[in-house]
Design brief:
Blueprint: E1 13-19, H1 23-31, H2 33-36, E2 52-54, E3 58-64, E4 72-81, E5 87-95, H3 98-101, H4 113-118
Antiparallel strand pairs: 1-5, 2-3, 3-4, 4-5
Length: about 120
């Protein structure tokens, strides 16, 4: 079981874009490190190698926020051609940090009713 299995399904952010460029050109921009570095923020990738890739269709990267609490996530880029020769780019940003799957701590005064009333 991965940490994301415990998270609600609606915790992922999904963005859809219609691009004028053909899928081959968009694929190069998201999969070739020298091109990807031109638009993806420096240090955003936890690992420069993709977690998984289906050439021309989909690539997944592990990303880590640069500001505390420095949470990890999986970002998936999916490509599909459009009727006019462009590309539909779907970006799925899903949290993947074990700290998010931990249960919230219980209040210290939840066991005795007298304390609950006093609080």
């Amino acid at each position: 079981m991965t940490p994301t299995d415990d998270l609600p399904q609606d915790s992922a952010l999904v963005f859809d874009y219609e691009l004028d460029a053909p899928p081959e050109k968009v694929w190069r921009a998201i999969s070739i490190p020298a091109l990807r570095d031109q638009w993806l923020p420096d240090g955003a990738l936890a690992d420069t190698e993709p977690l998984a890739a289906t050439p021309g269709v989909q690539v997944c990267y592990r990303m880590r926020e640069t500001l505390p609490p420095c949470l990890a996530s999986i970002v998936t880029f999916q490509l599909s051609p459009t009727a006019d020769g462009g590309t539909r780019l779907t970006i799925i940003h899903a949290p993947d940090d074990a700290r998010l799957a931990q249960p919230l701590p219980q209040a210290a005064n939840d066991a005795w009713t007298g304390f609950k009333l006093a609080a």
